[in-house]
Amino acid sequence: MSIENENFDFFKEASSLIYRWLSEEERNQLLMELYGENVRNIAELSPQLRFFRLLHFIEVRFIRVGKWVSRIAELLENISSENSDLFIEDLIFKDANDEDVRLFELREELREVKPQSAFEDLLRQLEFKEDYERYMSSSQVRRRE
Amino acid sequence: MIAKRQRLQYVNNFLKVLGGLRPLVASSRDELVFEFFCYFRKVDELIKRGKTPLLKNVHNRIFAPHSKPSNPLSASYISFKDVRGAPFDLFLNGQFEGRSGVDHSPDIVLRETKSGKILSIYECKKHSGTLDLRYYREFIGYLQEMKVQPWGRNKTFRNFLPELRPCIYTSAKANPSSGLMRDQYDFYTIDRL
Question: I need a labelling partner for B136 at 20 to 30 A (CA). Which of A11, A58, B104, B107 fits?
Fold first, then answer.
């Protein structure tokens, strides 16, 4: 099998694996985002674009939250130096089910899972780090080529 | 080149790790964290502009802003003191009456303490891909309803405090077609957050 065919098959099967793994709610969210890019269905994209679009969706849904929580902690340090005395341990919000979420605890739980490392490891293992970066810096609305 | 089967195994292993993350981002937690992040970015910008923050409605050291649209004064928020001007408050998920009489809830609102006039609004859009134009249209609707159009008093304010310019914060890529709307209504987009 040629490298192109092997890659083509991989993108197709990996995309299918990821898409099937997404919850119903996540698929709907993805579909809504694709509509905004004039794509009616993920299958309209070429297997390679489909794979990178799904990776990007996962990155925003699951990976970046760790970065946002860390940035909040950093921003609070600046705020605390202005005599407001506010730390990440003091922050609470209610989620959509009205359950209290302490941002500090969420940060600890995220640190255990290490989402950013898992994502970077995957790109490295697949040898797609540069391809993904290229995808991210290019227009993300291209259809099947 | 790594064999396809091996690569699919890597993807499978990654999805198993993600499975552990799902409860942590469920029930809109990821969106609320994103809103917090944008809120404190704005707080940081105002502090860097020389404004002094003052925490409001903090009980037993707990700072808990609204997660759903509600009376802005009934949860934690940050007020800013400035001897050179009027004090103002920064709310997260507050509900405000628009020009038409309908209630609206832009994610983040900056409001003058004394007059209650809304000075600016900031929306947080946690999306992947390219941000749909409909969110820009919705934002312009908010600007009209909350009377934060770029003229008169608002224009003067924005000249000496650029942080008052309305903004869309998003994890997505800004829509390339949004430039003209942005210029016309004087707002900006901070994308790929």
Answer: A58
